[in-house]
Structures are given as structure tokens and as C-alpha cells.
Amino acid sequence: MKKITIAIDGFSSTGKSTLAKQLAKELEYVYVDTGAMYRAVAYFAMQNKFIGADFFDKETLIQALPNIQLEFRFNADLGFAEMYLNGENVEKQIRTIEVSNFVSKVAEISEVRAKLVEQQQEMGTNKAIVMDGRDIGTVVFPNAELKIFMTASAETRAQRRFDELQQKGDNVSYEDVLKNVMERDYIDTHREDSPLVIADDAIEIDNSYLNKEEQFAAVLELVNDVVKID
């Protein structure tokens, strides 16, 4: 069976990572969560006081990029790879609402995107990879054999994110999460460098009313259709 590259793009909190993990496990492919990479850079900026509620020292962050080492390490107990920043497991820290508030601003920076895109393209050299993010089908892997673009209403996505954070014990309000979702949507779709857009050859999936099982079954069928083509 031929190996392909699967690019999954879409808005925040559409379940891209969940779907990508399901596909990678089913196909025995490598899974790469590019969002975790941008979150790790945002966390680095927060830790080093480069960014805050009312300031962002972009130039200092750009100068510090050579000091940022990102690595995915597989956790057999969890069944997926976790993000390590300069040798430290930051998987939990990068999933907070605080990091979510800054990640799109960090991802706007061309130098940050160039650094991470280069790493992402290296990861996909041998195909057999599922990668999710904002510009996978348009920038990272424009020749991917299968491109999926995921969307859902902002309210639906905010509720999903709110429920997830509540389960983790984070004290957040639905209103704050909805505001974050809408702000990220605006930044992601309006940035000058690699804005979030649907690739011409991508298949759009609105999962507002789909559960995880239905979504996975639909996309797996698309994968099988592509793999069968010589």
C-alpha cells in the first residue's frame, strides 16, 4: 500500500489533532501536531517575558529563535508524542488558555514560521505522515495527496474547548473561551504570512454536528480512496 502525506488544516478547536491522531494510529503513520510547536514558542516567549497582556518584544524573540529546540517524544503510556522545549516536557503547560491567548500573535512572525516550517518539511520527507495546523496544505505540503480543511461554528468550537479546559480543572469562563476563539480566527485569517485559507484542492468538513466516530469514518474513507489510486 502506497504511503501518502495527509495535511489537516482548519480553525482552532475543530478537533484537528484528535482526528490526526486517530488516522496516524489506524494507518501506522507519524503524527505531527504543528500547533504544539507554535504553542511551545509562545510559552518560551511568555517564560522569558517577551510577551504579555500589553506588550510583545518581537525582535528579542526573533533573536532568541536559535536557542529554541523543539522535539516530539513518544509517550507509550499515553499513546502519542509529547512536546519538549529545550529538553523539558511542556505538553501540559502549552495547553492553557494563557498560551492560547498569545499563540496566534507569535505565529504571525515570519521568522518563527520559517523556522518551524523548515522542521515540519524535514519530518515529512518520507511521507507516511499526518500533520495538522493552519498552513499544512498550502505552505508546508502543497503537494500532499490528501488535504482536509476542518471548520465549525465559533460557538460550537468554544463550547468544546471550554468543556476540555473544565475537565482539566482550569478555571475559565465560556465567554473568555469564545472571545479567544474569535480573536484567534481573526488573527489566523488576516496575518500577512501564510494566513489560514482553504487550499484549492482541499476537502472541507464542517463537523459542527458530527461526533468523533462519524468524522473519523468519513475521513478514513477519503484516505482509502486516495491510497487505491495508482
From TrEMBL:
Any one of the GO CC terms: cytosol
Family classification: Belongs to the cytidylate kinase family. Type 1 subfamily.
Molecular function in Gene Ontology: ATP binding; dCMP kinase activity
Chain's gene name: cmk
Record: residues binding ATP: 10-18
The EC number(s) this enzyme carries: 2.7.4.25
The Cytidylate kinase domain, residue ranges: 6-224
Organism taxonomic ancestry: Bacteria, Pseudomonadati, Bacteroidota, Flavobacteriia, Flavobacteriales
Primary localisation category: cytoplasm
Organism in which the protein naturally occurs: Flavobacterium panici
Any GO BP annotation: pyrimidine nucleotide metabolic process
Leading EC class: transferase
Record-given protein name: Cytidylate kinase
Reactions accelerated catalytically: CMP + ATP = CDP + ADP; dCMP + ATP = dCDP + ADP
Cell compartment(s), UniProt: Cytoplasm
